[in-house]
Amino acid sequence: MNTSARSTARLLVSALRALLVLTVVTGVIYPLVVTGIAQGAFSDKANGSKAEHEGRTVGSKLIGQSWNLEGTDKPDPHWFQPRPSNSAYDPLTTGSSQLGASDPTLLKSVKEARQQVAAFNDVPVGDVPKDAVTGSGSAIDPHISPAYAELQIDRVAKENGLSEPQVEDLVNAHKEGRDLGFLGNERVNVLELNLALDELANR
């Protein structure tokens, strides 16, 4: 074997060794270390922030869901309702409608939705907040504004045989502040709120 051939062989062996080492480090060791840290320090988040109720998983705290009458697409008056979703809360088809703020189609749908929400909650149309009639950018936002949650208190209380103060206390207990005190807005997680409502209504 001449010098050039031996040099090429050494380079190939070195390259294969580097490939093997990097494969083991980045493909085996690193994922195991990161997974171990995540499971040890952030187990709930690492496993999808699951919401448990009566011993079973009922959803994720990070993904919104519909609260409709069984077998229909009509909202169930017993529950706090989430904001609209362009994807019916399917995490595999996230994204907004892509309609601009001045698009006639969007303006028409928002106007109709505002009237529906007002009628559903028996409140003036002018009291309906924006997030009650517009979807989030992801279409799976699990939160609503405190204003939208408060708008629903009277209806939810009546439908569940509870007093307004009881339901109002429930909403206040589930208000989440801004991240780090200044990022985003105050919000209420609809899934967590409805699970607490179910416990209260069935006491």
Provide a brief overview of the structure.
The protein is mainly alpha-helical. 48% of the residues lie in helices and 8% in strands. The protein is built from 7 helices and 5 strands; from the N terminus they run ααββαβαααββα.
Task: Show the helix and strand layout.
Blueprint: H1 3-41, H2 43-46, E1 50-53, E2 56-60, H3 104-121, E3 143-144, H4 146-151, H5 153-160, H6 164-173, E4 175-176, E5 187-189, H7 190-201
Helix pairs in contact: 5-6
Commentary on this structure:
The chain starts with a helix and ends with a helix. Helix 5 (153-160) packs across helix 6. It folds into two domains: 1-47; 50-201, no CATH class. The protein is mainly alpha-helical. A three-stranded antiparallel β-sheet has the order 3-5-4. Strands 1-2 form a two-stranded antiparallel ribbon. The mean pLDDT is 87. The chain contains seven helices and five strands; from the N terminus they run ααββαβαααββα.
